[in-house]
Records
---
Amino acid sequence: GPERPIIVVGAPLEGLEKLISKEPELTFEAIVAHNGLIDRPERSEIIETLSNHLAPDGVVSLGENVPRLTQRLHELVDLSSLDKELSDRVVEAEESIYESSTDPLVTWTPEDLTKAFESAGFDVMTELAPLHRELRVSRSFIKRWFEPERGEGERLSYADHLAKQLSPEELDQVKRLFTRQLLDRRINWTAQVLYLLATKKRS
């Protein structure tokens, strides 16, 4: 009968990289991952490694959330009760989170990932799809945005980013607006997911 496939299951691609380092002759017919590259600054090198350990016509199938295209908090509220200049600074401060050149979560686009696979010798098909979730905004959500208990080395909070352009009084004003408009309300949260299927070209 047909040969049974051998399936290796592990943590996102770090586990696969460790396995390859121990068994450099290992090859795969298919590699499937969810958010395997989402925050990896060395994406191109990882993709090259995957290519080197895929069988001819092997495939890589990924589902990657795209943080750069995620829901913006300021879009969930009506800022018109704020001074126009202040509301503009709120929007600008939040958008700056997603324009960072140093945060690997947001330094890439779907086009970047597609080009990286193509450069490594893959034929690539992609689909960018919205992922909708209904959430109830609890007090813990508001606290996470505006009063996080952050350990050393952890990511900056929403309020940390706003504080770069807002005074403490203005920040408190924005927090009260969010609380007033969102607390215990149900919201539709929209993320974007990139589905990518890369097939290794025959050399």
Note: DSSP finds seven helices and four strands in the chain.
---
Amino acid sequence: VYHGINGCTAALTAYRMVADDWDHLPLTEEEKPSVHLVLDNPNTLTLNNISYSYGNKQVLNNVSSHLELQGFIQITGESGAGKSTLMDILTGLRQPDSGEILIDGHSMAAIGRENWWEAISYQSQDDYIFHGTVQENIAFNGEKINDARILEIAEICGLDSLNQMGVFNPQQKISEGGVNLSGGQRNRLLLARALYKKSHLL
């Protein structure tokens, strides 16, 4: 019964996370990208007149910028200014109403979202923690877990703080939604998940 309830809770949570945004998600099959690029080390990202609206509410209006992809880049603004929406567009999770994004001078549409996703790691404020072990939540993709990488990331993210013993335990059980973790512990675990992928861009 317990596991059945956990499964239903996870499904309901996932539904609620996408229900409001369903019409904006890139669910249509992409055409085959016209550019074959290896994006292990993208250098520049250019936004050309990006606009986006939720119904009648416009949150982004002709946003343009050229970014050198090195060091840290900070996006600031008031609550509701469109920062999260902009990040969703930059990562290919949303399609802008108008404008284009260029990666090293090539449009994201030409490169393909799948190729772009291979080059980046993205931790959103709504990422989900599921019922399982710490290392399963970090590796996440179902492939064979790299134990050495898990330990490396655990040290970087301070995952020894996930239990009262103060010792990192990759087999520690995590409840659905991370309800047995504090907010700070959940953020550390999600950051570890993003870093585990070892992408050029985070």
Note: The chain has a mean pLDDT of 82.
---
Amino acid sequence: SAAPVQPAGEGRRAAERRAHDELQSVLHSIGEAVITTDAGGHITLMNPAAEALTGWPEDEARGRPLATVFHTVTDAAGTGTLLVDRHGAHHPVIHNSAPLAAADAADDAQGAVLVIRDQSDELRTRQAIADQQARYRALVENAPVGIFHYGSDLSINYCNGRLAEILRYLALTLPRRTYESFPMALLLGGLMGMGALAAGSEL
């Protein structure tokens, strides 16, 4: 006997359910926050990362307008985006969105997918590096001994204030040399000629 013919509407709904289940499985495996919406901009799915970032459980967010859950403001510098979570906390984020293809390729997009990356850890790391560099510069600049950096050609490309004093002295004793362009060998030779310089010693 012939197999029963499935009504077109039921086949379409079954395809949409399969697509929904597949999409949900994919979203839950992604580390970044992901939210999907229907064509009207209402939330249909959220992955655990999105729940954690926004403070909204998926079952409470589903059906709400995206702007209710994904509420953003501009940061104080005017250059970045802050996500305001359900509890009022601000999180620096970057985000992008794309149309969500319908189950039937001939149909219009059935919504959108929004991917959100929390930059909190990244910005904390950047700030920690900047703070460390600032402490290093302060330490070097205020050191009582001469400190310098040199390039592959052994010419000095940086020196602290104490070494600048030493080099200005050497420039008077070594003709046609500015302290910015002293070769290291010349510097070391000049320092050896002057003797060991103790911290805080007078030139």
Note: Helices lie at 8-28, 48-54, 58-61, 66-69, 120-141, 161-173, 184-194.
